[in-house]
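@channel anyone free to eyeball this complex?
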Amino acid sequence: MATSSKTRLVEEMQKQSGQDPNGCFQCAKCSAACPVTAAMDLLPHQVIRYLQLGLEEELANSKTPWVCASCFTCAARCPRDLDLARMMEGVRLVMLRRREGNKFGPADLTPEQLAKLPQQALVSGFRKYNK
Amino acid sequence: MPRTGVFICHCGTNIAGTVDIARAIDASRNFPGVVHADEYRYLCSEMGQDLIKNAINENNLDRVVVGTCSPRMHEGTFRKAAAEAGLNPYMLEVANIREHCSWVHRDIEEGTPKAIALLRAAAAKVALNDPLDSPELEVEKRALVIGGGIAGIQAAIDIAEAGYVVDVVEREPSIGGRMAQLEKTFPTLDCSACILTPKMVEAAQHPNINLITYSEVEEVKGFVGQFDVKIKMKARSIDPVKCTGCGVCYEKCPAKAPSEFEMGMTKRKAIYVPFPQAVPNVPVIDRENCLYFKKGRCQICAKECPPQAVDYEQQDQIIERRYGAIIVATGFDQLDPSSYGEYGYGQHPDILTALEFERLFNASGPTGGKVVRLSDGKPPKKVVFIQCIGSRDKARGMNYCSKICCMFTAKQAILLKEKVPDAKSYVFYIDVRTAGKGYEEFQRRAAEEYDVAYLRGQVGKIFPEGDHLVVHGVDSLSGKVVDIKADMVVLAAASIARADAPEVGRIVGINSDSYHFFNEAHPKLKPVETHTAGVFIAGACQAPKDIPDTVAQAGAAAVKAIGLLSKDVLKGEACTAIVNQAECSGCLYCEAVCPYNAINHIEIEERYHEEMHKRTVAEVNPSLCQGCGSCSVACRSGSINLKGFTNEQILAEVDAICLQR
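replying in thread with the prediction:
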């Protein structure tokens, strides 16, 4: 069990999401609030616990970050004012960049393409579901 | 020419680490008026004080500057030492070269010149110091306790037993407070009323205690030893002297209203006592719900009252009284959990707060002591308790732990099992906190002997399904989602400050934290004092706390008040304002800004061009003045000075820092 306080994944996730998993005291309100726990192998509060412990590989093998529907109920209910939905998104982004790398950068596009470029959310959506 | 001595403290390495003491001593010798300079490792020690005293005598010093820690720490120590050597204590100045200098610098090259500048300023100021005397103030030997819960009752009894008269002002018609609402107390499970009512009766019968119930403090003026207080006695509509407490009036009264004591779960009459053991046992008429006051007809209570004690004509009364000390013991409220939508509080009769659930156990409560569901009157077989509703919740509630919920939940789960032997309790918790004598053992008994299932986790939603309430939560330790078909849900809602705590704080002149709990003067060493001299705090108005802590704090506050009342005179503030009446233009801005009502205006006569003229000028009452300096700032002509902090002294300090390098 890798328990170094901050691994690369946690650091990058934190940069992406602006959320510090150490603010969590594991009350599990997020898991109680989450509407899709039935489809998860790790409960939402366990994802934060894994982040606190730096259990990178275990997280990489979990379905939970990909099952998360970003409904933000966890964020609305969290008594510590943490946004777990953002953390999940942060984990997904880090995973994707590691696995897939960036598909293309702004330099690969022509000025005409750049002018028509869709919203950033769409771009990240393409990247996320690109097989 | 002044003969000033400068003494610099090393404070171990606290000061000497970032201030070159030798250089500071050398520089001090060259300040105007300085005839002696010395240093010591710990100037506040007895040896250090002796060093100052001896130097005063040997060098015939008439003024002293000490370069030490903050005057808040040791100004008193050094002034006392100077006085023992024969100086007026106000001929000593403190240059704060620790908090203001050595602690905020890392580099000795930065710290040293700043320390020298601060010492130079103090030497320049002390050269202009005059000897000052503290006025003596009389102490009114009477105490006021605001709030008649267990804290107020205990404090009043302790003060009364010490031989001083004490008034207890209680807003409700009866004393007793929150403790009167409880059925049992943890961790001993003794009946709350059985231990509280003897104290209520003792307070009522004590010759030194006056209970002023159904009343509120409206105004507090004055200062330690002499607080002038206005108390509003709301019209009770009953003559307490005639009333025998027979209870015929509220038996016959036809008008009803929700009972505040039962938190609206049942109704009381418009003429009522809040609970059977009420002290004083004198009813009040709630004029908003009384048919006679609403519609001008009825008067059944007056007709039925055997001693004819009902008096519809009674008016609110204002009592004005002087007190030497005040204890604030106004208690706490329970958070209303209806803002937490996921729990459905207020939308289903079987979802209760802990205080409401507590009342179900009480023989005089809304169910006559039967623990049953309010929806169908059946005893609940499965009860889910949820902890930390609004506590430890910085997003939607209070960031603090309410401290008492873990214990009262264990108590209620045990009581439930005793009343309904086949009931099963579940407790959703974040952490179980049981610090306290016998507390951990008590909570373990609940889990081990009373079959209470503790689930570490929280609840996401509660929804009705047939006769039941489905509680959807998580047990974080097993990592399982759980759905419990419960008959009843009990919410441990956070303990919060009274809604009107800010108003009480404003009236009494004490401050509070961001949650509106009253602030103690020091979190460790002055737990019952406030920043306002003569005002003390006790009980849950300071922070959530249980009964043993409340009673201990009430005793502590009483001791502080007794200590104050036992003095015949207090030393007042020596640094008071003084008006130069020759220059005063009589604009009286000072009178308006003075927070202590210490400034009045008088007419003086003066000769001008051979004729006598009358003129209005300001005058300071030095026994009321607290030396805040507001008047001195407001004065347009600069004719009010604060003794010990005169404009000339302050400017001398500024010049000493700014004009010399």
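from a first look: Chain B has a mean pLDDT of 96.
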